[in-house]
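Reviewers of the previous submission asked for a worked example of the structure-prediction workflow described in the proposal, so we include one complete record here. The input consisted solely of the amino acid sequence. No template or homolog information was supplied to the procedure at any stage.
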Amino acid sequence: MDLKKINAPVNTITYNRNKVDEPTGNIYEAISIISRRADQINTEIKKELIEKLEEFATYNDSLEEIFENKEQIEVSKFYEKLPKPHALAVQEWLDNKVYYRNTDEDVQ
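From that input alone, the workflow returned the following structure tokens.
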């Protein structure tokens, strides 16, 4: 996932309800889909961050020693400045980049 290419807002904004529920015709269904996508994005970001921070991990038994690593701080700051997963999910939804299907319709 390339987080730099998504132009989601960092701050809270108000969305037009009609644009959000336009693809499904139901605001609750749209919010449910966006919520699930936000969970997926959050999992991806967390996994990516943990992998990057593992590179800086030092394993020693001394609790008194604290190492400051500037690269580690920069990585952490980058992830702190990213838009929140729900903002990314809403932006993907409005850009029609989220695939969804209603399984109730598929069964019939």
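The chain has one domain: 17-107. We consider this example representative of the routine output the project will generate in years two and three.
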